[in-house]
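example protein:
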Amino acid sequence: MTEQAQAVLTLLRERGIPFDVAEHVPVYTIEELLALHLPDAGSVAKNLFLRDDKRRNYYLLVIREEKTADLKALRERIGARPLSFASENDLERFLKVPKGSVTPFGVLNDQERKVRVIFDASFRGSRIGVHPNDNTATVWLRTEDLTALLEEHGNAVSFAEL
C-alpha cells in the first residue's frame, strides 16, 4: 500500500472510525474490482470526477457500482452547467491520485476545497467501500463517517437521488 493509503488508514484509526480493509491487486475499473469477489461487494462505490464546461466547478460523483451516471440529469438536479469528465491533470491537481484510484478520500487532498462531493442517496445510513487513495486496497466504513471527514475538511457534501 502507498503512503497515501497508509495515511488514510492512520487518519481513520486516529479518529476512532471503525473500518475494514482488504488489500488486492491493482484495479482500474469497477468490473475488475467486482471480479475479486471481495466481501460486502454490494456496498462498493463507483467514483466519477467531473467538471463543468467552464472548468470552474468540480464534482466527485459517488454512486452504487450497478448504476450508470446520467450527466444531463445530474446537471439539472444540481443546477450545474454542462458536465463532462475532468482531465487527468485536474485529477492530479485536486485529488492527487492517478486515474483508476478516484475516491472520496482524495478530496482530503483538495487544498482549494473546490470539489463538491455528491453521494447517491442510497448510501445514506449504510456502509460504503472505496479506495484509500490507492487502487490496491478497498476500505469499508459508514457513509456518515466518511462524509463527516470530508465536511470537516471544508468540502461541500450532499446526497442526491441518482
